[in-house]
Write a structure and sequence with these properties.
Length: 230
C-alpha cells in the first residue's frame, strides 16, 4: 500500500485512539497519540504545582517547556507505544480524570501547541502514519490524504469513559465524567488557537451506535478508496 497520512480528529472519548491503533497495526503504519502528549505536559504542570482547581501559572509552564522531553516507546506486550515524560513511563498516570479535568486548559496555551505541533509534523514527514487529536487535519497535516472526524453524543461518550475509568479502579461518578466531557467540548471548540473544528474535506463518523468493528471496517474502506485514487 502507498504510504499515506491518516488524520483522525474529534471530540473527547469518541474512541479516536482505539481506532487509530487498530488502523496502524493493520496497515503497518506508525501511530501517534497526540492527546497523550498534551496529557503528559498537563501531568508535568500538575506535578510541579503550575495548575490546580483555581490556579494556572501559564508563564512558568511556558518557561519550562524547553526542559520537557516527550517520547513514545513501543511496548511489545501491549502492541502500542507508551508515553514517556523525561524518560519516565507516565502512560497510566496521564489517563486519570484529574488529568482530563486540566488538559484542555493546557492545550489552549499557544506555546504548548507550537512545541507539540512541530514535533508531530516531524514525526509524520515520511508519511505512513496514523495520528489522532483535535487539530491534525486542520493544523498538523492539512494535506493528509485521509481525514476522519469522529463524534458521538455526550452521554454516550461519558458512559464509555466512565466504564473505562471504573475498569481501571478509579473512583468516579458518571455525573462527574459527563461534566468533564461537556466542559472539554466547550473549551476545545472555543479556544482561540487551533479550536476543534471539522476540516472541510474530513469524513464525519458518528459512532454513537457503531461497534468498534463496524467503525474499523468503514474506515478501512475509506483507506482503500484513497489509495486507489493516488
Amino acid at each position: 500500500m502507498k504510504k499515506i497520512t491518516i488524520a483522525i480528529d474529534g471530540f473527547s472519548s469518541t474512541g479516536k485512539s482505539t481506532l487509530a491503533k487498530q488502523l496502524a497495526k493493520h496497515l503497518g503504519c506508525v501511530y501517534v497519540d497526540t492527546g497523550a502528549m498534551y496529557r503528559a505536559i498537563t501531568f508535568f504542570a500538575m506535578q510541579n504545582g503550575y495548575i490546580s482547581k483555581d490556579f494556572f501559572d501559564k508563564q512558568t509552564l511556558i518557561n519550562a517547556l524547553p526542559f520537557i522531553k516527550l517520547t513514545f516507546e513501543f511496548n511489545a506486550a501491549l502492541g502500542f507505544a507508551e508515553m514517556y515524560l523525561n524518560d519516565v513511563n507516565v502512560e497510566k498516570e496521564i489517563r486519570t480524570l484529574d488529568v482530563s479535568n486540566y488538559v484542555s486548559f493546557v492545550a489552549e496555551v499557544s506555546e504548548v501547541r507550537a512545541k507539540l505541533v512541530e514535533q508531530q509534523q516531524e514525526m509524520g514527514k515520511e508519511k505512513g502514519i496514523v495520528m489522532d487529536g483535535r487539530d491534525i487535519g486542520t493544523v498538523v497535516f492539512p494535506k493528509a490524504e485521509l481525514k476522519v472526524f469522529m463524534t458521538a453524543s455526550s452521554e454516550t461518550r461519558a458512559q464509555r469513559r466512565f466504564d473505562e475509568l471504573q475498569s481501571k479502579g478509579e473512583d468516579v461518578s458518571l455525573e462527574a465524567v459527563l461534566k468533564n466531557v461537556v466542559d472539554r467540548d466547550y473549551i476545545d471548540t472555543h479556544r482561540e488557537d487551533s479550536p476543534l473544528v471539522q476540516a472541510d474535506d474530513a469524513i464525519e463518523i458518528d459512532n454513537s451506535y457503531l461497534t468498534r468493528d463496524e467503525q474499523f471496517n468503514a474506515v478501512l474502506e475509506m483507506v482503500a478508496d484513497v489509495t486507489k485514487s493516488l
